Amino acid sequence: MDLKMINLKTLILAMFSCYSMLLQAERREFTLDGMWKFRFSHQVENGSAIEVQVPHTWNSQDALAGNPAYKRGIGNYEKSIFADNSWKGKRVFLRFGGVNSVASVFVNGKFVGEHRGGYSAFVFEVTDCLKYGDDNTLLVRVNNSEQLDIMPLVGDFNFYGGIYREVSLMITNDACITPLDFASPGVYLTQSSVSKDEAKVEALVKLSNRGCKKTLRIETKVKDRQHIVVQNNETVTLEADAEGKAILPLIIKKPHLWNGKKDPFMYQVEVTLWDDDKMTDKVVQPLGLRYYHVDPEKGFFLNGEHLTLQGVCRHQDRHEIGNALRMCHHEEDVEIMMEMGVNAIRLAHYQQAEEIYDLMDKNGIVTWAEIPFVGPGGYLDKGFVDSPAFRSNGRNQLMELIRQNYNHPSICFWGIFNELKESGDNPNEYIKELNLLAHKEDHTRPTTAASNQQGDMNFITNLICWNRYDGWYGGMPESLAKFLDSMHQKHPEICIGISEYGAGASVYHQTDSLVRPRPVSSWHPENWQTFYHIENWKIIHERPFVWGSFVWNMFDFGAAHRHEGDRLGVNDKGLVTFDRKVKKDAFYFYKANWNTEKMIHIAGKRCNKAISKERDLIVFSNCKEIELFVNGKSIGKQRPDDYAIVEWKNIPLQKGCNHIVVRSVTKPFLSDSFVVEK
């Protein structure tokens, strides 16, 4: 054999060997999603378990059928894990993305730990629990029953039970960037000052050692898409079986800013741990550099420029799936939001999946993240119990929210509460405690809250918003204008926003007359929702002191206790149906106003039966000029008003089928049409 060929093979083998050693040196992660055995706690007979696919919820049928007595109890999930002999001498961790709401974890029948809270990730170390070179049994007992020491106590949404987010196994060396700091990445990137000229960032790296005393090197590199922009090294000595940390300052000249939807650019920060010349651990985190503030008169500013926040709220469930969402579901939700022109979101009323925060970062959507400190709204019971256990749980969930999501540039606000009451156990002192804790954990972001009443609680957080339903639960939209103007006049120093506004609508309920329905009735005509959003958005948009507004809701969602609209167990205030298949007319009103992509949409197309000889027509379009044709005959041209609306009154209809077409006059040539039968 040719000597050159032998040397080449030797070189390839050597390179592969080094690469393999490097892989063995770094942390490894394995998914534990897939098939698990499941049974309820009352099913104690042998063979009663069934196979389910994790992520999973056991309430995808009963809760979504509108049964308010849906199963709330204990479900057992079991899976066999083979622990390879190569794991000996390493550290092994279990990570759960979300289990609702109490998770008790056992390995080989031995209790490992308990997590109380249904919306945050958690990690347990199981190094000493495993039998290496053998199969191991993992049991997770999940309890979604009502608990008076766990947020939330109440809520206008379903409390789905199950392991409904991803599960993974992580293997590291003795000394590692810790995954045990409230299940965070162990790396915190604090933007101490940012401008267009310079960004100063502090990288706090938390370490954990489960071995002898070590002196290690931490390398931190900030990378753009091609190059290392800046880097810093630090040597740290870890005592045996101890925790440690290091702070590495980073300065970036002329930074490329994360600028919302205009330019959601992010650097990547690569933090590596070295023992001499051997890499022993690595964590990569996003870094989106931005600066922003909220002005009580002029609203929200991002990187020195005013930005009107065109926001929506989002729940994390779906028709027939419940809350056991996959990545494809999160991606579809974001695609629909981007089509409408959304640039801000309130992720209500709890910490949502890591994937959705990643998508907010990548798409430049300004984000409000919050804990599930939720009051009853218009229902009975309370969201606050003044007990040490409840207080402790709320603090823990707030720390989990902040530490797990600290590095997401899209997150600009930490939400503290939603619709609490001051009667009985008054939550105000506890809200103050949570507000201080949020600032202690993260001094760079303001706090906010969603209120539905007057009181001292509205003056605790940095910003405040109200949930308003003027024209749905009472009054008419103009009462929103009176409220905002009065509040701004009385308190010009506070930053005021609208955290929720919305109205129910069924795409199956159509009428050509505009009459406000009863919210609790089974009749939710779509045209009232359309009218409601047109009038409310006008009021909000014409008041620049409203720092942000968030439509309730982007999508219909499950609420088993509701008995209204076209079916039981669904809150139909979404702009899109629960299954994401139908976009309601109000969706297209916002699309015409929020998205610059040219479009035409005829509102009321689903109302395709006419009694009278004439019909009014509303069209949403951001085209320069549009023309209406009825049965091939031009009725005239019009320019949309400031809110992308064109209205034709008293359009004549003939007996039988009438073909209605609306076309743009100039390029791009767009059209929309439908047939109405008289």
Q: Oligomer, anyone? A: single chain
Low-confidence stretches: 1-24
How many strands, which pairing sense, and closed or not: the largest β-sheet?
A: 8 strands, parallel, barrel
Proportion of residues in β-strands: 35-45%
Averaged pLDDT, please?
Answer: 94
Shape: globular
Number of helical segments with 4 or more residues: 8
Radius of gyration: 28 Å
- Span between N and C termini? 89 Å
Q: Biggest sheet, strands in spatial order? A: 26-27-28-29-30-31-32-33
Helix percentage: 10-25%
Helix-and-strand structural type: alpha+beta
Number of strand segments = 42
Structure characteristics:
disordered N terminus; 38% strand; six-stranded antiparallel β-sheet; eight-stranded parallel beta barrel; 678 residues; 8 helices; alpha+beta
Please describe what this structure looks like:
This protein is an alpha+beta fold and 678 residues long. The chain is built from 8 helices and 42 strands. The protein has an 8-stranded parallel β-barrel with strand order 26-27-28-29-30-31-32-33, surrounded by 5 helices. Strands 3-2-4-10-7-8 form a 6-stranded antiparallel sheet, with no helix packed on it. The longest helix is centred in the first third of the chain and has 23 residues, at 3-25. It is globular, with a radius of gyration of 28 Å. It starts with a helix and ends with a strand.
